[in-house]
Structures are given as structure tokens and as C-alpha cells.
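Entry 14. Two folds queued back to back today. First construct below, sequence then C-alpha cells.
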Amino acid sequence: MCKISDCVRPRWLIPHILTFLARFFPTLPVVPTLDLLFKFVKVPRKKLIASMNPLRYRGKPRLGTVVELLRVTDFLNQRLSDVNLPFIVLHDSVDAVTDPDVSRELSREAKSFDKTIKVYDGMMHSLLFRQTDENVEIVRNDVLSWLLARSGGEKRLQRRRFQDFVLLTVLMQHQNVKCTV
């Protein structure tokens, strides 16, 4: 998350009040929010798994955390145009938690020549866990393809497979095992 969408960002006075209160009560869990679990979990079985996760925070966000999120996203938002490295952004078109327009803005403003944005339809917020297995596979393949294309990974992977084949052949010959490929 590099910017809080204008449609969910608190009105101008709220961040000032939160910042003031956080100086004295940073761990106070009083910031009102909705339980977003059911807004970004598509598969009922995975909703159950996510709801039973013992590491899942169930309380209200703490003042200090919210103030830092506001501060950091403001800082990052002012520097979107400074991004000058290869990146891929993955987002859903109807994300109820973060705004896909913010991802589009990053892609538009960044100086990087190697930038990829993938906006998926109907996958909700959590792209790699709380989706159908088919959708998770689509996202994983997109990430893997992006990484392999930039790392020479496909050639390296083919070379490694060939080396493994040669090694297996040598080992099989050494053991006098006959095998047809």
C-alpha cells in the first residue's frame, strides 16, 4: 500500500486528532474499522481458515499504527514519481480494501521504464490466498513469469534441467540401470 485512497481516507481533522492522541496513547485500540475479512475472502472454506488463524488480529487498529500508516502513505504518495526500478503491481479491479486507482497512479507516475501492472477482475483483495485455487495459480504464474523474464531464469531453468538430466544419465550408467527416455 503506497497511498490511502481519497474515498477511504479520513477527513482532514481526523488525522490531526489521531496524531495528537497517539503521542499519549499509541497502543490504545480505538480506531473504528469494519471487519474486512468477509470483504476480501471469496472462497467460503478459506473464510473459515482465515477466521481461525490464531495470528489474525481481531481488535481495532491501535492509534500509533494508524498514525504511522497515514504518515508513511503520505510520504510515499509524494514520491511516486521517484520510483525508478523494475516493479510489478498486482491489484483487483473491485478491491474493497485498497483502491486500484492508486496502483494505476503509481504505474503512471513512476520513472521506471520496466513497470508492469496487472489488474484482475473479480478476485477481491487477497490475491494469493483467499481466492479460488485457479485464481491463485493465475496470479502465481504472472509473478513467476515476471521474475523469470527479468532474471534470465527461464534459460537458467532449462540449463539446470539439462544438467540434472545429464547427471541422472551418468548415475544410471554408473549403476548399470537401463532406462528409456
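Second construct, same run, same settings:
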Amino acid sequence: MDSSVNGKSGTVVQPRDKRGRGMIGTNINHFRTQSGISLSELAERAGISKSYLSSIERNLKQNPSIQVIEKIALVLNVDLKTLLQVNLPDPEAKETPDEEWYAFVEALRQAGIEKDNVQDYKILIEFIKWYQERKQERKQG
């Protein structure tokens, strides 16, 4: 998803995640904490108030000016495009699924399996695993 700049007012039209939440503040917080810079320090070095920066980071200030975002990007030593991007790595994500998993999920969708029914399929998979283990035990025993 792209962000854009409103030419008249110079405000950033903030990119949104899948739930419609603003992402600029989330990205600023991500890069600030990665850099080990405090909220106060970033605000001071960017020449903006700490409360204003805090409201941006918490996505309460929905459309900060491009000039403010540029100042923040400069202090964080991050390209403006990078700061405005939507898909930052999730620090809590364990591992990125490989192409086979994406293909599997797509096959499930094409088969008409709804997200609401996933738990039922998990139970079915557990049963199949149990059945295969029993079958293997009988062969060995």
C-alpha cells in the first residue's frame, strides 16, 4: 500500500494496515527503538514537541506534515520511503513462511475453506496424524 502527499497542505496521507490503522507512527517507533533513541531525544533533535511525537507514534496524529516526517527520518537516518512503508518486519514473528506454505494457504482458499473453519481442520489433521502413528506402530509390532 502506498502513501501519498497532499500537495495543497503538505500533509502525508498515512498508509494503513489491514485493520485500517495508521502505520507511520508504528514505523517511527520501530526505527526509534531500533536506534536506541528515546522519545525525548528524537523530539528534541527533530525540533518537535515530545507530546506531538508521542501522538504520532501512537497513531493519534493521523496526518503529520511531510516536513515533520522528513525531520524525523533525518534524525533516525532512515530513508523517507522506508519510514512510510507499510510492511515492516514484525519483531515478534518467529519465521517467515516459505513459498510452500503460501501455496498451501492459497489452495485452502481455492478449496473454499473459510478462516472460521480452520479449527475444525486442525482437529482433522491431528486425527490423521494419530491414525498414521497407530498404523506405523502396528507395522512395527
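Quick look at the second one. The chain has two domains: 4-84, 99-140. The beta strands are 4-6, 11-13.
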